[in-house]
Design brief:
The protein is mainly α. It contains seven helices and no strands.
């Protein structure tokens, strides 16, 4: 990631509140929202920085948007920035879920609610697929990287390897490739 520049807690709060309010679908669906706010609108991070922070956030336990907020909030405004960003990112979801729970209490079987949820599912899948393609275009810079991503997806979809071991395998492969390159570069 690029050098650390301190930003005001106020601006970090409002940016992450916007992210939390717009990151419907979570996970991959949130990636374009992160990029739009932090790389395009604010220019605090590059698209590469956003993708890197997203990858780290996805590889540890917890809610990706909160993990991302803590990681980038720390970078943007220190420890207090991490706390402010995490709270701001979580607030919209908290209030939306609270309102939905109050509104739909006892109505989940209602045909109108079921129809709305059925229509929502394909839209979320489309957003996630679009984010995955966008992330791949920005981060997979070699045929080997594309092949590794395809192999990982196949292992995941075939239920041969669950996500956590796949992430650890990817990290291990990255470290092994890095060490091999260092040995090659150091050899006369």
């Amino acid at each position: 990631m690029a050098s650390m520049v301190r930003h005001s807690l106020h601006s970090v709060f409002w940016s992450f509140l916007r992210i939390g309010a717009g990151a419907f679908g979570g996970g991959m669906a949130a990636l374009p929202v992160f990029e739009a706010e932090l790389a395009t609108r604010r220019r605090w991070l590059t698209p590469h920085d956003v993708a890197e922070a997203y990858a780290i956030s996805q590889s540890v336990p917890g809610v990706i948007i909160v993990n991302f907020a803590v990681l980038t909030g720390l970078r943007l405004a220190g420890k207090r920035g991490a706390l402010v960003a995490a709270c701001a990112a979580a607030l919209p979801a908290y209030f939306i879920i609270l309102a939905l729970a109050a509104l739909f209490a006892g109505r989940w079987e209602n045909r109108w609610v079921a129809a709305a949820l059925a229509g929502l599912r394909p839209a979320v899948v489309a957003v996630v697929a679009g984010a995955a393609i966008r992330l791949g275009r920005g981060q997979l810079r070699s045929p080997f990287a594309w092949l590794a991503a395809a192999a990982g997806a196949a292992l995941l979809f075939a239920k041969i390897l669950p996500p956590i071991p796949l992430i650890l395998l990817g990290a291990g492969a990255g470290l092994a490739i890095h060490l091999a390159r260092r040995k090659t570069e150091a050899a006369p």
